[in-house]
Specification:
295 residues; mainly alpha; ABC transporter involved in vitamin B12 uptake, BtuC; 2 strands
Length: 295
Amino acid sequence: MTDFLQLLLMGILVGGVYSQIAVGFVVIFKAGKTFNLAYGEMVMLGAYISWTAMDQWDLAKPVALLVTLVFAITLGLVVERLLLRRMTSAPIHTMIMLTLGLAGVLRGLVLVVWGPDPHAYPDIVPTGTVNLGDIMLPTNFIVSFFIAIAFVALLSLFFQYTKAGLSMRAASEDKVAAQSLGISVKRIYQLSWVTASIIAALGGILLAGISGVNLGLAFMGLMTLSVVILGGIDSILGALLAGILMGVATKMAEGYLERIESLKGIGEIFPMMLTLVVLLIRPHGLLGQKTVERV
């Protein structure tokens, strides 16, 4: 029973971080109806920038965080303005291939500047463990979980109660109607990329605090695409629930299924397997909006 609770709680903590990162996918899709396949590299790049600011430039942690956010905002603006704005009317597969090319460019940039070697990430949150009886939970996992959940909650409030958030929701529902109300769809698209870039950078910082700075962060960031699909590609609450579910399922697979010799490594592919099973039952995801087309 102790092992089960240990895996359950660890899965919930890791899943909270997955949820926070997955929200960036949702923001981009709601704005432009496309998937950003460079998102994992944006997560990784945020981790490398923050590590450089703290470890190499010896900046104070709040200043390093500010530098990382400024970089994330700049990256979102540059990508949207130079690459994606002129492609807004292009077919969806063209947009997807463009972000795939961007992923290659960003990964190559990381390899050229920082090389392939992993780096230990400075302690930005308290270390140690919290003991709940026989259950031991790393403090950095707990702090990262609450930071991620708080960020998701703030973003949800942003979409519900701010003018910019409501404008983004309106543009995602009907661009023509939004333009008729005086909403600049180009500005909204730009804002969505900036927002997603900030989310990716914060997610990279949280992941790096858990697993260090390495090229694998790109895969971990992209893996949250399965979280988005599972929760519903247009639902922030769905991303939150799916992230926690995915974290728990992955930890359970690592804890129990990988004890079988023939199933070693199944934890890496289990999220995709779970997503496939759920989509066979609910093609629009757990909380995704079911689209009805009238002919």
